[in-house]
Amino acid sequence: MPVSLLWAVDVYGRVYSLSTGGQQWEQCHDAVLEFKRVTAVQQCCWGIACDHHIYLNVHSSDVPIRYQEETYENQRWNPKDNFSDHLLPSDRWHWSDITGLEHQPLDSFLLPSTNWEWEGDWYVDENFGGEPTEKGGWTYAMDFPATYMKDKKWNSCVRRRRWIRYRRYKATDTWAKIPSEGQSGPLPDPFNDISCGGWEISEEPRGRLSLWAVSLQGKVWFRDGIHHHSPEGDGWEEVSLPGEVVQISCGPGDLVWAVLWEGQLIVREGITRDSPQGSSWVVVDSPNPEAGAIHVAVGDNVVWAVTKDNKVWFRRGINSHNPCGSGWIGMVGEMVMVNVGLNDQVWGISCVDRAVYFRQGVTSSELSGKAWKVVNVPRDGDIRSHSSPNSLAGCFFSDEVQAQSVMSEDSDTEGGPQRAVLEVGCPLPALVLSPSLSGGLGDPQWSNVDLEETQTHLAVGPAGVRGDSPDTCSLSSVATYTLCQGDPYGADEHPLWAWVSGGGCGVNCHSQLNWFNSATALASSVQSMSLSISPAQTAAWRKQIFEQLSERSKREMDHFKHYEQAIEQSVWVKKGTMQWWRDWKPHKWVDVRFALEQFSGPEGNQDGILFLYYNFNEEKKYLHAFINEVTILVPVLNDSKHTFAVYTAERTKQRWPIRLAAATEVEMHDWLALLSVSCCDSRGIQGPPSKQAIWSVTCKGDIFVCEPSPSLEACPYPTPCDQMFWRQVGGHLRLVECNSLGVVWGVGYDHTAWVYTGGYGGGIFQGLASSTDNIYTQTDVKCVYIYENQRWNPVTGYTNRGLPTDRYMWSDATGLQECTKANTKPPSPHWTWVGTTSRTKYLNLFPTLKDFVRRRRWARKCKLTTTGPWQEVPPIPLSDVTIVLCGAQSSVEPIPLWAISNKGDVLCRLGVTLLTPAGTSWLHVGTDQPFKSISIGGANQVWAIARDGSAFYRGSVSSESPAGDCWYHIPCPGRQKLQQVSVGRTSVYTVDQNGNLWFRQGLTPSYPQGSSWEHICNNVRKVSVGPLDQVWIIADKVQGSHSLSCGTVCHRLGVQPMEPKGQSWDYGIGGGWDHITVRGNSIEAPRVRMPSLTPSLTGPPPPRSLLPVMITEMENGNAVRC
């Protein structure tokens, strides 16, 4: 889990942050002013200082915040001056934007604020549509509105070139003042409250935020233009109100609530991607009419409120269809304020002892949580001179009391302030239903709310006694005190907090954090006496202990080998009932009895047989498959059944597996785990994958590994691909990359980077099928898209009434399958919907029509939670990663690793070693445009593909200069847009957007850029080149003897130093495969000299070309549907 921060402000205006990986509050020493309130997100923190101005603190990152300014220089040809800046009166400006409508000279570009700086001077962009231009960067056209080309022709009358300059945001990890200026000048009054959120309104790139602020006069302002490249935003815009507002709260999605001066609450409606400010307000009554609300906090699907009598309330029925909810539920505890952070976790500040509390037990099914627990961690610089033994072994949270309505008192030995915490398992809360809002708009999303809370609200304070609370409460209850000289707290006093913000704190009810456990870290005096053990020492001790245990076991077993075995052979049988997809027509599901028979021989080797017993024409028959012939077990994506496929070498050739369906998902997982262990035992495979393993990923995110044999790359008789055995590894990824040193990285569908921990199993593999350590929780998020189609008619305009020949009005991207909001489900039962449905802008046309139709895309996110031998590498999301190639016996430290962020930034990972495969930090490598694919091969050759399809080579990359010095633009092959690149020891392969595979010719040590491209074949999705220059691909379509499979693993045969392009293809597992990497397989094939018998036998093996022929696909052909 990545490290995140909980922010808080004490009553003296000091700002602190508490890291999820730390054990104390760290003061923000950069703050020169006292702060009143803060609102935090993951990438930054906003605050209101004592001068009532807003300040921004952007967290520093390995990737700087850069913004590209561009302008175009336009020229026209005339017979006298040739090309010059003497333009016609009807022409565009000499310096303009890309449209030519706006005048943009170089000196008109100014820095937005003093928090920015220029990276360098203006320079000409010499890249046009993925192709390098002539020196000077000019592109030519007949006239300015016409299409531009990089080559000059006889009728080229105008030309233009693009100038680029980058500016960088420099005010990181410091408080930068935000100008209080609106569209018509300075704002009339200062700010009093602020709230930040809105990063999940739509599928916008990470960094887009909504900032709401409240002025002292009760007006609400919205900050426009906040995104990754403009963290400060553009300006303030006033939002109309039904009354005066005192406080506002904005959630991660489209929830915005505010508190009126009279104690009522208002809800903002109509917030969308196109209108982040919303359209209107709806008034919601206070939970207690006699004591109006003074504070509100919102999250994804929750709303919490605090009334003037400091009572805490939870709003039930909140969802995307009903942002107003349906009623209030009273919670135990009395708070000054509450705050909802990530994952709807709740933080609060007690009204009596001013301590920060965390709401325990908040889950997606129980959003109200269970109990308040105090955060009892020290501040940096605190001196604990009077600590009892119990306090040294205590916890960061005080103990809970399980008894009903009972307070737990815990006083220190000095008679200091006593601390009490309530458990929410107490009787009947007060439930207030709003008559006007009891009926929601649409079907609500149901969740559990604990209805056993006490109706009598008890205070959380010293000795459990509530102080007298007035009938009315002013905003002074959350004000800060004057900052005194020195430390205002005594040695044994806890801090007094005024505000807390958890919008950037990524915790949940299952987080394993130091300050969420039941045991604290010892005091600093005790910690200083503990042993300092480094990871290297720990690894060495583990290895030594393992070797000693292995030697002892071997020594003790060798003395008893001559004894006769009591049982020569043992047999185990596991039976069950399943359904089998019949191999012949009519294809249908047939009930069968399924049996796995396992037996072990006299030497301890294990094997087994699979039996399928079925009835055909009232005759009992069976199918069988030997366990040692099974090559892979694949879970199959099916909407109605829990199915998996069993492949053998012969059925891999046929593209026709044995397809089985279990009654329940649990039963299917049990069978998969058992069969996988049996297959591994029969082949003598145990433990984690080796460093030479081949990794692959299916289109549904399942991860498989194969242990390569020494003859896999042998010539002329390599091991056939269809005989390779693949086993599943827990986790869920989009791609995996590795090298022969054992460093393995992966990237999820949500662009999260993961590093392999060395374990095995996880996911559906538990017990003996999984390692007990190095298994961690893994999450992934992806978007599901559906399309709304409309046709125009002269009477009603665009409507959902189409012609009989039209596609469905709600469909998938192809239009062939109906997909409505109601019947669209997550990809599998493992996925759950998160957030709300958002839409993107209208697309102009159908793929084949010109007018009268339009469509728009709707997106909804779903989340998967699983386990596997993977640890997250924060904090930058990635789209591609590559690790340097090396030999089996080589030693490279540090290990070069390059990556591309989801924004297209090129990154170089520093500190990657065998002991620290995750590395330490990122080094940003500057580029003129965003990239999408990268690969590093032998001798530190780095090749990359830009998003416009152009290829680049990075020069002078070495161990002394890990980032190199400059990019060399490589022309694309045949005006094709490249998609992916893979670099081997001495060869470079690329795949273009049309599925063509290209080989780079002319690579030499003196000229590593090569000379030209040579076409190899088509029908290719991905390519992977290994340390022996071996070539593997994912083929788009491969014809088997029974069916056509999409996404098939293929191996290039005949690759030799004198024949680097190879000769033919060998087909392996498929379909449904989306990624493969062989960059870890550096096992050299044994050299065997075969006698030459006849000239025909010495030639290359017959080619097996890919067949892109389209035929009707059988239902059983694709094991994993893409």
Automatic annotation (TrEMBL):
The keyword Membrane applies. GO terms for cellular component: autophagosome membrane; cytoplasmic vesicle; lysosomal membrane. Pfam families: Hyd_WA, Pex24p, Tectonin. SMART domains: DysFC (SM00694), DysFN (SM00693), TECPR (SM00706). GO terms for biological process: autophagy. InterPro entries: Beta-propeller_rpt_TECPR (IPR006624), Peroxin/Ferlin (IPR006614), TECPR1-like_DysF (IPR010482), Tectonin_beta-prop (IPR051513). GO terms for molecular function: lipid binding. This is Tectonin beta-propeller repeat-containing protein 1.
